[in-house]
Amino acid sequence: MVVAALDPGPEDVVWDVGAGSGSVAIEAGRLARRGAVYAVERRPERAEQARRNAARSWNVEVLTGEALELLPTLPAPDAAFVGGGGEEIAGLIELCLVRLGERCCPVRGRLVAALATLDSALEAANVLRRAGLEWRLSQVSVARARELGGRLGWEALNPVHVLSARVPRFTPRNLRFSGDPEK
Q1: pTM of the model
Q2: Which CATH code for domain 2-168?
């Protein structure tokens, strides 16, 4: 669902922020086969796992560190995925919006976030509201089968909120969030 919403083209630059095991980056790399995918993960052990998983993906680069520090140094993306984000989610979404607007391309940029908590989903949606963008929020739930008294039943897993938006290409100076002082 996330990769479909990212909709990476053959020559796109894609960001996977909070890459975890690298699964989104690897799948995006297959679709952006002449492009580049940057997977950013703050936890060294998870970044190493993503590197191992992406070893056969020639166009996926895994970076270890804090996203708010690394993202400004990367090429501007055509599509950005944010997985996680915690208390930094609003800042990550704002930064992704600004950088998505920097690319010279008639095709709108794509922002997708998978968020574990309702608070994070609301914070991210509020950033998109303040930026004046249309967005879509979906909840994805999965359940696993398990034995219940000798019969088969379902055990629900924590749902994930998937937020997506199309971002027009504009200069960062034109992007204003409500409440920002005039520049």
Answers
A1: 0.89
A2: 3.40.50.150
